[in-house]
Amino acid sequence: MTIRITKQGTTGGLIKAVERRADVNLSVCYQCRKCSIGCPVAGETESPPSEIIRRLQLGAGDELLQTDLIWTCLACETCYARCPNQINFAAVIDALKSIAVEKGVAKPKGDAPLFNRSFLNSVKSYGRAYDLKAIAAYKLGTGSLGQDMDKFPAMLKKGKMAILPPSGADKGTVSRIFDKASKNRGTGR
User: Fold this and answer.
1) What predicted TM-score, i.e. pTM, was given to this entire model?
2) I want to staple 95 with a disulfide (CB 3.0 to 4.6 A). Which of 22, 45, 60, 164 is the partner?
3) Residue 135 is part of which domain span?
């Protein structure tokens, strides 16, 4: 597979923005590939974590924002745990994702952004995840409300889903976290 790297018009290209947002120093990566070897989704993507970092080091431009790993990364932080230089690759992916969304460059396959919004809105509303609300909002957004309804009784029976929203969460603290994240959007702080 041939990989094309185009330099951004500004000096430093994409790497400066990613390093600032993720609060990482990618120049310390010496390509040991431990991040890629431990990544549970690396085998399913075009570019594993080590390649993403190397492409950034070489001055990759907006073409890197179309990499499928941006949208399939599980943020499990296995890469971070394995990295001898403690590069937080999940933060790098988050930075790339936010830049891609801001620039309107990449369109993820499927409905991952809709799912993320649905889930986070339920957390924002109740102070913790409320599966029923998140799933209903997601299904309404995709237009497939009736799909998978046959699984609902079994999930209730096994205690995998609650009908009532969760209680006891500190909604004030969660609200402050969302407000701070909104104010600091994309700054990595």
Assistant:
1) 0.64
2) 22
3) 112-182
